[in-house]
Amino acid sequence: MAKGKRRAVEEPVDKASLQKQRRMIKNRESAARSMNANRLKRKRLKEKKEVLDENEWWDKIGKMKMLGKKKPCL
């Protein structure tokens, strides 16, 4: 089966199969929520890192100016 492809949903023949199918659906939905939450967390951390990196760069430029250097050597 190719990645991202799901088998066609078939009618379960007994109660155990029905429960298993429901559990699989719930698990798939839970995994999707978890992946989305992790994706959002990584995005926020990346944005925060970019801000911190920019602040660090400006701090270095400020120190260079105080020391009388013309170009920052990053």
UniProtKB/TrEMBL annotation:
This is BZIP domain-containing protein. Residues 1-37 are annotated as: Disordered. It comes from the Eukaryota. It comes from Arachis hypogaea.
